[in-house]
Amino acid sequence: MKNIKNSRFLFSITGLLAIIVSWQSILMLKLVEPILLPYPEKVFFELIQFFTTKSFWLDLLNTTSAWIVGLIGGIVLGVSIGLLLALNEKIWFIFEPIVEFLRSLPSIVLVPLISLFLGVGINSKISCVIIVVAVTIISTIGISIRGINITYKRLQTAWKLSLIDKLRHIYLPEIASHLLVAIKASIPLALIVAVASDMLIATDNGIGKIITDSMAVFDTKKMYAAIIVVGFLGYISAKLSTFIENSFIHWKGK
Amino acid sequence: MKVIEIKDGQINYIGSNKNLLKFNLLIHENDFSIFVGKNGCGKTTLLDTLIGFRQLQNSSTYYNAYDTVAYCVQDFNGGLFPWLSLINNILLPLKTTSNYRNDIENYAFDLLKRFNLFDRKNDFPYQLSGGQKQVVNIIRTLCTPSKLLLFDEPFSSLHSDNINVARLIIGELGGKKTIILISHTQDDLLLPINRYFTFENNDICDSTKDKVSLFLNEKY
């Protein structure tokens, strides 16, 4: 098992090195202008530079707080509303088209709309993330509760379970795996919306703001460095959510 | 005392106006009834009706004296909750009642021992074979605090040794609880039943007088 883990790590490192070598080769062969794709070491130095400036930490704090607060708020709101709507078939049928319509909307289009109402700033960003995450969670809860195993429905009817018992013993564990998948999908989605909000709303801080500002002055080293920071945040969160899913839903796929 | 009575009962196929069943049914307290019929004749549908999961057509009259029902479902794979250990699966119906009874918990342990599953009480359903899951399903039904026990083909995936143990244990409850057992084999007539029903031509026929006397006694 340890050998498998070690070789997996080695493969990951090899993949990363291959990308850096290809990147360097493209530039050495002059296939792309350095203004469009700066040398990897310059991007790396720019990254180091980031961590030594106070403004970068403010940008990082701004984006990550919108991302994390919005994500948590969206999950709480989504689970509450989702259960409220999905536990009653008729209510769900009334609201399902609205939920599905909102879920089908490209999440970015909500950003200008919400900034119209809430103005620029962190509140607008958090609200955008909350709405996008909540809609995803509501839809997942609705689908998973409506599609609950028919045998569980038979048993809860036979045992005359109360709503609390149904939720506690059947619905919540049954939808937990679907919910964690939705949360897993919501994490990068929330990051996309948080960064896009930085870019689309005229805010003073945020990683997205670094990207748009540096693009405006063709400071591509800075732009790539900021993109790598965003990618790293997404990667860490994806790993974390997979770990949480595997730790809690031990019965999944068995 | 009658505990279940259905008059002019009609059940249609799902999404259709065509009758699946058109029948009358009368069950007395502590009857041990067996219902035998071919696949697709409406056996599980009848149980669904008795637990309130499916409704009879409007013209039917229905009386059921029981509130909660102990139900041994046919789908033993889907019938156990994968997030609960065996013992927690077995005790779930008990835990959801306001009156937790230690005697039922002890009975659960005793039954697990009789089926050689006691050492695995903390395992999860996905660690068991199909037959073992069915045994847990039967034990849970026996440990559900209810006077009405429904079994939907409970022995279909059991090894003959376990079938004998299960028949013996269920038989011990004959005359003490109202039991309805669905089967598609006449082997289950070896149980100490006092009522025998067959599904014929979309009807449920009380064949007790014809059959039970042959197997058991001259009571009817």
Describe this structure in words.
The complex is a heterodimer of chains A (254) and B (220). Chain A has 254 residues and is mostly helical. Chain A is 82% helix and 0% strand. The two termini of chain A are 20 Å apart. With 220 residues, chain B is an alpha/beta fold. Chain B has two domains: 1-69 and 146-154 and 177-220, P-loop containing nucleotide triphosphate hydrolases (Rossmann fold); 76-144, no CATH class. Chain B has a six-stranded mixed β-sheet, with helices on both faces. In chain B, strands 2-1-4 form a three-stranded antiparallel β-sheet, covered by helices on one side. In chain B, α6 links the parallel β6 and β7 (178-183). The longest helix of chain B is centred in the middle third of the chain and has 13 residues, at 102-114. In chain B, 40% of the residues are buried. The model of chain B has no long low-confidence stretch (mean pLDDT 88). Chains A and B meet through α7 and α8 of A and α3 of B.
Strand content of chain A: under 5%
Largest interface: A-B, 21 and 25 residues
Number of helical segments with 4 or more residues of chain B: 7
In CATH, what is the homologous superfamily of the largest domain in chain B?
P-loop containing nucleotide triphosphate hydrolases
Please provide the count of β strands of chain A.
Answer: 0
Question: How far is it from the N-terminal to the C-terminal residue of chain B, by CA?
Answer: 17 Å
Pick out the low-confidence regions of chain B: none
- CATH fold title of the largest domain in chain B: Rossmann fold
The stretches of 5 or more residues of chain A where confidence is low (pLDDT under 50) are none
Mean of pLDDT of chain A: 88
Strand order of the largest sheet of chain B: 5-6-7-3-8-9
Which structural class do the helices and strands of chain B define?
Answer: alpha/beta
Care to count the β-strands of chain B?
A: 9
**Helical stretch tally of chain A:** 10
Largest sheet of chain B: 6 strands, mixed
C-alpha termini separation of chain A: 20 Å
How do the SSEs of chain B run, as a string of H and E? EEEHEEHHHHEHEEEH
Q: Tell me about the biggest sheet of chain A? A: none
CATH class of the largest domain in chain A: Mainly Alpha
What is the helix fraction of residues of chain B, given as a range?
25-40%
